[in-house]
Records
---
Amino acid sequence: MGQFPLTLSRFIIRSQAEHPGATGEFSSLLSQIGLVGKVIAHDLRRAGLINILGTTGETNVQGETVKKLDEIANDTFLRAFQGDGLVCALGSEEMEQMVSLPENWPQGKYMLLFDPLDGSSNTDCNMPLGSIFSVLKYTRADRPPTEGDLLKKGVEQVAAGYLLFGSSTMLVYTAGHGVHGFTLDPGIGEYLLSHERMQIPERGKVYAVNEGNRHKWTPGMQRYIEFLKTPDKATGRPYSGRYSGCLVADVHRILLGGGVYLYPGEVDKPEGKLRLLYEANPLGLVVEQAGGRASTGTMRILDIEPKKLHQRVPLIIGSRDDVETVEAFTQGRA
Ligand code: AHG
Ligand code: MN
Ligand code: MN
């Protein structure tokens, strides 16, 4: 007889038992993320039928076009976390300022940062999407949190992960003890443990980058991509290019099979495109916990001292050896 599947809730309770002193709030927070995933997945599946594709006509704080689904996913996170006493502050890629809870509402000890819908250019063509989350702890008792409290280095995250809305819905997270992946079984409405203790291969054969930007890159980055395309049996080159336009999906593929995802800085825009607090830090923690590496090209992502909420950062993330090779090129050592 096969083993009975382990649900997300059972897995969390079991892990909690290994941490004496745990109050259960963290477990509730993860379950709530799971619920947010079910709600967003439900909307995405029907999106083409209920007029929620396309744009709202607005641009967000990043100067990017807002999709209707960006707003819906953001509202879903807000509704799920505003009133349930698990968090005391929320920061989102789609909101200019931090949201704190009214004083007379229950305040939790966590702060949540999120990219509600990642890869939103994929909404209208039935391609994969994701959501990314980062959990910080609020430890002060003398005053309510302010925006400055969200500006913590990635190493200070207590948990992080993502939801992937692909051919199946997955929740992948780390709480600092390995990375675990759950797949939503739509038949029973439960997340079941499908990938325990995920480990990224030390080196891969896949690279993910938007090569349309080539002319904007530094010479080191251009040389690295040329290197990947140059055949060499010993090092497994040429690599295969795989780019979905959804960071979560591309990083998930690399987490499973190895390789490297790059959104480099550009000569005229050295800070790159992706956001430190909502994208690079949480995925950086996940990938490091799986044995990989996340870098700007010159430093470890998780060691960056954030200066502002919507800060951008160049991101090179994936298998340890691959990221180190990129660093050698960007630092002029190769
Ligand atoms: P978001 O939809 O949250 O703004 O993120 C989009 C990100 C990421 O998911 C993806 O890898 C990258 O931007 C795609 O950017 P390009 O279209 O510039 O390649
Ligand atoms: Mn994103
Ligand atoms: Mn987004």
---
Amino acid sequence: MAYDVPPLPYAYDALEPHIDEQTMHLHHDKHHQTYVDKVNAALEGTDLAESPIEDVIADLDAVPDAKRTAVRNNGGGHLNHSLFWESMSPDGGGSPSGDLAEAIDETFGSLDELKEKVNTAGANQFGSGWAWLVLDGDTLAVVASANQDNPTSKGQTPLLGVDVWEHAYYLSYQNRRPDYLNAWWNTVDWGVVESRYAAARS
Ligand code: MN3
């Protein structure tokens, strides 16, 4: 069972003006496809080739030494981008509700303070990486990861992540990563994040 790039759950131009159509084509069709091709090549013929990518990335120690770096980078890329596409929507933005909204207020003070923390983590990530809202034990936290590392490799559950690789924003925002981060919040599908939060706690 080789991995596939999941189809985008909306049109390529659906996230405009926040994320432009050309970026979505390159990012989804080219960058994500490359991660999938490379992780498939790395896992071909191993026992792990049949495992869900979530399980593989959650337990990188189980990957043979010679394959581990390729799987960490490219399998991580596949998992991160799969989560990323799903957590955006042309009807995104606004606020979470229910238990997640309560937990955000309790942990961070307010949604605005959470956004501030994620934006800071993303802006300060040197080079390429991601900023995340995670569930760590039973506590929400904001973390950054380098390259294509996923928080699940550290035992945290990713609830929402934003890609801060230049390929995610450079065509529209050039060097203005903070402007991209601010705009990206308008795409967040909080319903998906709420579902991940509920699943992680059950
Ligand atoms: Mn990317």
